[in-house]
Amino acid sequence: MDNSWLLAAGDDIFRVYDMATQETVYWENSVWPVKTGLLSNNGKTLITSSRNGHIQFWPMPKRIFKEDISEPKAKKFHAAKLT
Q1: Contact 4, 81 (CB under 8 A)
Q2: Alpha carbons 42 and 65: distance in angstroms, whole number
Q3: Among 38-42, 50-54, 70-74, the least confident range
Q4: Which residues contact 67 (CB under 8 A, 6 or more apart)?
Q5: Rounded to whole angstroms, how far apart are CA atoms 11 and 73?
Q6: CATH node for 5-82
Q7: How far is CA 52 from CA 14, 29, 32, 58, 72, in A?
Q8: 80 or 46, which is more confident?
Q9: Residue 40: what pLDDT?
Q10: What Cα–Cα distance (Å) separates residue 76 from each residue in 41, 51, 81?
């Protein structure tokens, strides 16, 4: 995969940034607090893991517009690079 991604996750929200374009390419509210994630299936699936061990699968990419992005209200914010 030629893209480099950044997963930014808070208590109940996460975003995936495309490092090449510096844009958010995926945004999702999650009922589980996301701890980390990875891309699989040649970048077609995002797998996230919560702090309590819950795993979710998300189709990628889900392109969104900047006006659709609301600011996260999470107190804690974590980031992990996805390659």
Answers
A1: yes
A2: 23
A3: 70-74
A4: none
A5: 8
A6: 2.40.10
A7: 16, 17, 8, 18, 20
A8: 46
A9: 67
A10: 29, 13, 17
Mean pLDDT of the chain: 60
25: amino acid identity, one letter: V
Report the distance separating Cα 10 and Cα 83, nearest Å: 20
The answer for residues whose C-beta is within 8 angstroms of residue 51's C-beta and 6 or more apart is 33, 35
Domain range summary for the chain, segments of one domain joined by +: 5-82
Cis peptide before 61 (omega within 30 of 0): yes
Average pLDDT of the residues in 5-13? 63
Residue type, 10: G
How many Cβ atoms sit within 10 Å of the Cβ of residue 46? 24
Q: Looking at residue 42, what is its pLDDT?
A: 65
Report whether pLDDT(56) > 60. yes
CB 8 within 8 A of CB 15: yes
